[in-house]
Design goal:
about 300 residues, single chain, 7-stranded antiparallel sheet, alpha+beta
Length: about 300
């Protein structure tokens, strides 16, 4: 009888042990599931917050674009301004925005005679330390290519060490007199020949020039060409998103090293002057950038 009682007690103890192990296992499983649920809820919350901040940052960046458009609209002569025309960092909405307006050219501040060795301008910002300029708008009626070897970065802003009446590629010019207020453009050079047609091309390669906008219009031998992006490759810029014969201009054949300028401010053009707005909106950890090219 005592033996039976001992066996019963052993069986009961064994069952209790199994029950305890099962209970502990269930507790561990429930704790793991709880942790997973908490993690999912936390991740979902962070994702939702991130998505909200990203949307808010985009709205803030777009607000910066609108602000810069207002500044440019109040500016009578973009090329008579410093470059950038405006750079602003300010609180906006739920975050902050940094916006700037860049322009691709400047103007003569004083008369430039045919023998002048320096050109006084309103800004030398973003121009290369040495290179080529086009002074005035039309090389068929008095515009001139000028080579320079230096710039001054404070007032009076100047291009120095001028060599006048240069030939660039297959385009020749002669030294002349240019009135105060004449446009002064940076000059790049074509790195692959263009046929005389309006067919689209994947890209156009030119020598690098920081004064060119990251999206806008270039002029090659009178043909205006739109581009929507730039990739830097060594000493060259690869323009992408190409549209030839823009603004109702005719196609032109061009050879390697022919001059390339930003869109020229021609009197008979329905579009003149370009500016690029770059606006960066920040909300929390989210950052969004909006770029827009304007034409006057």
């Amino acid at each position: 009888m005592m033996t039976a009682d001992r066996g019963s007690r052993n069986t009961t103890a064994h069952q209790k042990g199994v029950s305890i192990i099962a209970a502990l296992f269930i507790i561990v499983i429930l704790a793991f599931m709880g942790a997973m649920l908490a993690s999912l809820i936390s991740t979902g919350s962070l994702t939702a917050v991130g998505d909200l901040q990203s949307t808010q940052a985009l709205s803030v960046a777009e607000g910066g674009v609108e602000y810069e458009q207002m500044i440019l609209a109040q500016n009578v002569e973009w090329y008579r301004s410093p470059d950038p025309v405006d750079t602003t960092t300010q609180a906006l909405g739920a975050g902050s925005v940094t916006s700037t307006s860049n322009i691709p050219a400047t103007m003569l501040r004083t008369l430039l005679t045919s023998t002048s060795a320096a050109a006084n301008v309103y800004s030398t910002s973003r121009f290369p330390a040495s290179g080529y300029l086009q002074i005035d708008d039309d090389v068929t009626s008095g515009a001139e290519f000028v080579q320079y070897t230096g710039v001054t970065s404070s007032y009076p802003y100047q291009f120095t060490g001028l060599t006048r009446g240069r030939t660039i590629g297959s385009v020749a010019t002669t030294a002349g007199t240019h009135q105060r207020g004449s446009n002064v453009y940076p000059v790049s050079q074509l790195q692959s020949a263009l046929a005389s047609n309006c067919s689209s091309t994947a890209s156009i390669t030119i020598t690098s020039n920081p004064k060119f906008l990251s999206a806008g219009t270039i002029s090659i031998r009178g043909e205006e060409i739109n581009y929507t992006g730039v990739t830097n490759s060594g000493s060259n810029m690869i323009l992408t998103g190409i549209q030839r014969c823009a603004n109702a201009t005719s196609s032109a054949a061009a050879v390697v090293n022919d001059p390339v300028t930003p869109m020229l401010d021609l009197p008979d053009s329905t579009l003149s002057n370009q500016a690029e707005i770059v606006s960066t909106g920040t909300v929390g950890g989210a950052l969004r950038i909006v770029k827009k090219t304007l034409q006057r």
